[in-house]
Specification:
By secondary structure, this protein is mainly α. It has 8 helices and no strands. Helices cover 69% and strands 0% of the residues. The longest helix is centred in the middle third of the chain and has 25 residues.
Length: 169
Amino acid sequence: YVPAKDHLGQLMTDQLAGEYVYPGAPAPDPRAAIADLAQQAQDIARRHPWLAGLMQRPMPPGPNGLCYLDQFLGLLATSRLDTGAKLEIIAMISGFATMYGALQAAAEPADEAGDQQAAQVQAFVRAASSGRYPNLAAALASAGPPRSQADVFGSCVDRLIDLAGLEPQ
C-alpha cells in the first residue's frame, strides 16, 4: 500500500535507478563512465517509456536514486565546477538521455522511426527552400552526411560532458 500516486511514482523511479551498473572506484576514465551512464539511462527509458512522464514531477530520490547521484558526483570529482553546477550537469545528461530513450521508444518499431525521421527532414527541406528561413537553408546546405541515432546521441552526450570540464583520458 502507498498513501498517494506520487509515492508510487517515487518507488517506481527508484526501482529503475537500481538497474544501473557502476564502474569500479575510481573509474579509470570518468568521461567514458559518464557516457556509459547516459547510455544506460537511454536504454532504461526505451524499456520503460512511462519513465519520462514521471520525471516531469520533482520527487525526492530513494536509495537507488541517491546511489546514482553519489556515483555520478564521484565521476565529476575532478571537475572544477561547484556542486550546483555539477548537479546541473547530472540533470542535463540524465534528462537528455532519458528523454532521448523515451522518444525512441515512442517511435518504435524501426520502420516507423525511419518514416518519421524522413518526414522531419522533408519538412526542413521544404521550409528552407521557401526562402523564409535563410539560416535554416544555410545550415542544411553545409550539413554533412546523415548520422545514425546512436551517433547523434553519443555526440550530444560528449558535448554535455564537455561542459563538466573533464579532460579526455
